[in-house]
Every structure is written in structure tokens, then in C-alpha cells.
């Protein structure tokens, strides 16, 4: 999986969760981050904060367990 450096922590968390569900080791995931080029310092800081906020681990209402998805994805899936 290739994505921007600022996006990697959340993307990796989501991919690892999705590909671990009933996978029984069928997938070998690799993660490569591209440099955060082309963004101003302010833009990068804002994106990093958005990603960090979205990565918060919450208790998933529908499963009653910790949900590794970003908060918004979990809320949409549980409604």
C-alpha cells in the first residue's frame, strides 16, 4: 500500500484491520510512504492533525469491542 507520509498511520491501521478479519494470514501487506512534498507547513500540520484525530480508537457500538477504524468510518458502519 502506498500513500502519503502524513496519511500512513491511519491508512496502515485501517488496512491491517480490514485484512486481518478472517484472513488467517492470507495477506502479506507492505506499506510505503511517499514524502510530504508540495504542501506548505500549515497545510501539512492541518492534515497531520486531521489524520491524528481520525485515528482515535473508540469502542465500537455495534461490536462492543475496540474498533481500529477511524472514528467517522466506525460511526457510519454502526448507524
Task: Please give the structural blueprint.
Elements: E1 2-4, H1 8-18, E2 32-34, H2 41-54, E3 58-59, E4 66-67, H3 71-78
Parallel strand pairs: 1-2
Antiparallel strand pairs: 3-4
Features:
79 residues; two-stranded antiparallel ribbon; single chain; two-stranded parallel sheet; 3 helices; 42% helix; 13% strand; alpha+beta
How would you characterize this protein structure?
- By secondary structure, the chain is an alpha+beta fold.
- Helix content is 42%, strand content 13%.
- The protein has 3 helices and 4 strands; from the N terminus they run βαβαββα.
- The strands form 2 sheets. It has a two-stranded parallel ribbon with strand order 1-2. Strands 3-4 form a two-stranded antiparallel ribbon.
- The protein is elongated.
- It starts with a strand and ends with a helix.
- The mean pLDDT is 76.
